[in-house]
Amino acid sequence: MAAHVLCLALFLLQLLVLLVGSSGENVVGTRWAVLIAGSNGYENYRHTGEDFLAVLLGDNSTLTGSGSGKVVNSGPDDHIFVYYTDHGGAGVLGMPSGESLYAKDLVQTLEKKHAAGGAYKSLVFYVEACESGSIFEGLLPADINVYATTASGAAEDSLAAYCPGGEVGPSPPPGFDTCLGDLYSVAWMEDSDNNQSLYSFIGTNPANDNATSIDQLSFVSGGRVNQRVADLVYFWHKYRNSGDDAERTEARERLLQVVARRSQVDNSVELIGSLLFGSDDQGSKVLNAIRPAGQPLVDDWDCLKSFVRTYEGHCGPLGQYGIKHMRAFANICNAGITAEDMALVAAHSETQY
């Protein structure tokens, strides 16, 4: 594992040396920006869920991106390591393009790869995302030689790390107003410096035991924040620390815009719950119910996809923040709500928010 991390570091170092050597300028004090895995990145794909599954399956015939065409063309003696990091919600992993990747589709792809025979000897899957434990809980078979570890349990958020303004825990260098990593990824990469064995920190042990969930406008006094609010940190610190009035005003406006959109999503989902299940907190209880450990998030994954599309068709995209409500849509499916009723309440919510 450490060798792979070292290879990435050496690649970036070589790139930096090439850039410095070609410029001929004095680079002392220069802040270097390195873009990794952007949509126009080095031999990269457009980051859709379909492409990710095709790459994992070893099927280059269905790739839709503009990348290199490389896939995981593995054999019976190969050990596969998959490291996935993005925003997440119950039962889904965020993707930069297109719909979120649903847990059922991912696990079915792993099953298909195993069923093909001789596709791999073992596969290790590291996932950094909020509620990432829900991707495998109740779904991953025990007999396909896949070991998965996640940044968080099925019903907890993960944590961003190296965030500005911290008094406890590492913070980024002065002038950086955003979080530079996430606690899970930083932990396993640092762990790989000293250990060759698999990183086995799962759920709340130990990464998420050192901070609690926070309100979206309350930033912890430490180098770590809830991933759900990590994107607000930048605007908050820009607003708080900027000496330029125009920049400060812009940061404030952007922050208020993001918070307003989050409130709109939260309120519309809450209204849907009230319309379907009644007021007096009953709707909230149904939407936020957590199934016993070992059970999958939802009984009918097609229903979940359909209801999310219905909501987004009326109320707009959930976005990387809104997928925190995936459990609510799953519980609506589990409660047996019909597609017609879901369409009616989504349409009503659209008129209110």
UniProtKB/TrEMBL annotation:
InterPro entries noted in UniProt: Legum_prodom, Legumain_prodom_sf, Peptidase_C13
Active-site residues, as the UniProt record annotates them: 87, 130 (nucleophile)
Residue ranges constituting the Legumain prodomain domain according to the UniProt record: 254-346
Name of one Pfam family that matches: Legum_prodom
Signal peptide: 1-24
GO CC annotations, alphabetized: vacuole
Gene Ontology terms, MF aspect: cysteine-type endopeptidase activity
Keyword entries, A-Z: Signal
Example GO biological process: vacuolar protein processing
Family: Belongs to the peptidase C13 family.
PANTHER family per UniProt: HEMOGLOBINASE FAMILY MEMBER, VACUOLAR-PROCESSING ENZYME
Protein name: Legumain prodomain domain-containing protein
